[in-house]
């Protein structure tokens, strides 16, 4: 049976409003997804019935808050198949998770060591490593793509005995390409490198199993997987988390403090300084619950069919450069020769269609593809085939309008 | 539509933009206005003339004649060219002192433009206004 996205629409009331005088068509899901009632209600419920600081007070509300907070950790651990819930560290998002690792590993890096990333990376998985390289004298190396956006065959040679860290995205936010992660992670491990996978664009679409991936670190943001903003996850293997120097210190992360010295707390608290984003944690767990009640492979197949439909229609229409893969992706990234993507974006917006035009926080990738930016339509489980078609219709209309002189 | 910029009186541009009843109208009007402005030559599109802070590339050249300011501008985005036509229609041929007296943001709001521009592009517009009103 084909998945029916309209069955999910009542869970996302935000989508039923008009944008200007048109039905809102939300296709900017790779930037952030909308939140189901599951999440909205969970957050309300937290403030209405168990708001208190966690791990501190010994009173009715604080116990409830702490229980729910730690249950949420268990939920997220299960969601990514982490073996232990103490391996799930709360961060404010993928960006903070990557920075936690980049600062945390600094004490292990020496001049001449190599940090390897790919040319698909979002700035969040590039700038922290580049700055780490500047601070330590390590060398940042980048696995290249061909100009067609495909992987070069010979990437094995980039993994050397100096590679200390390998950090790669699972899926490109800008063009939707997947990295051949398993092969690359194996190569990195053979060199004894720490491995980090940026799952920001994967978690909403793919069931994630961090044990099967067997990476040292896995990071993602809640807001891209139907959860709230301001909450994300750093998963790590025990030994990998243990070697991280906490890059933030303060309350919560300590066991004993005197003016002379501080004894740090155990994992996960050691890496969670300060009062955490409790409502975010509760909301994220609700997002995981929401996804776990769905047939995730059916959602994925649906999202891919929308992207493929758009790809095929636009490819047939001609005159459009398509940067995303034809198959097995949940977004379509494009540009039109001689028309500015911001002009296309503005027309789509005027018709109620929300997409993203720009460099998608991936300047080096855009440079490699030879464009300043692309227009990206990215799909989520609640998008319908009518919406996919509406995007195509309005885009083609915009092209006609902007082409005439 | 090939009127050189000089022939579009500010009042026309203002009336056209104010008559827009929807975002789509404003879009189409800006695209039409964009065609009324001569493009800059490659030599004129220098780094110096480029405005920082715009999502699209914007170049703005200011020429002073007899104490009055004249402008030439271009962008790689059509819509931004339309916005430039609208902005420059407000200030062209005026002295710097007069321009500095104007509340340009309010005047742009009157043209239906502030709501039209996304905040990141509004920032670009602010950079344009800065240049127009600086020495
Ligand atoms: C692939 C990828 N990595 C990292 C990030 C950063 O996520 P956040 O801004 O939520 O920290 C994003 C967000 O766009 C992304 O798409």
From TrEMBL, chain A:
CDD domains, sorted: SufS_like (cd06453)
EC number: 2.8.1.7
Cofactor(s), by name: pyridoxal 5'-phosphate
One MF annotation (Gene Ontology) recorded for this entry: cysteine desulfurase activity
SUPFAM superfamilies: PLP-dependent transferases
InterPro entries, alphabetized: Aminotrans_V_dom, Aminotrans_V_PyrdxlP_BS, Cys_dSase_SufS, PyrdxlP-dep_Trfase, PyrdxlP-dep_Trfase_major, PyrdxlP-dep_Trfase_small
Reactions listed under catalytic activity: (sulfur carrier)-H + L-cysteine = (sulfur carrier)-SH + L-alanine
UniProt KW keywords: Pyridoxal phosphate, Transferase
Aminotransferase class V domain sequence ranges: 25-391
The protein's enzyme class: transferase
NCBIfam families listed in its UniProt record: sufS
Family in the record: Belongs to the class-V pyridoxal-phosphate-dependent aminotransferase family. Csd subfamily.
Protein function: Catalyzes the removal of elemental sulfur and selenium atoms from L-cysteine, L-cystine, L-selenocysteine, and L-selenocystine to produce L-alanine.
Name this polypeptide is given: Cysteine desulfurase
Species annotation: Marinomonas hwangdonensis
TrEMBL record, chain B:
Domain Fe-S metabolism associated as annotated: residue spans: 16-133
Leader sequence residues: none
Transmembrane regions listed in the UniProt entry: none
SUPFAM superfamilies according to UniProt: SufE/NifU
Family from the record: Belongs to the SufE family.
Protein name: SufE family protein
Species per Swiss-Prot/TrEMBL record: Marinomonas hwangdonensis
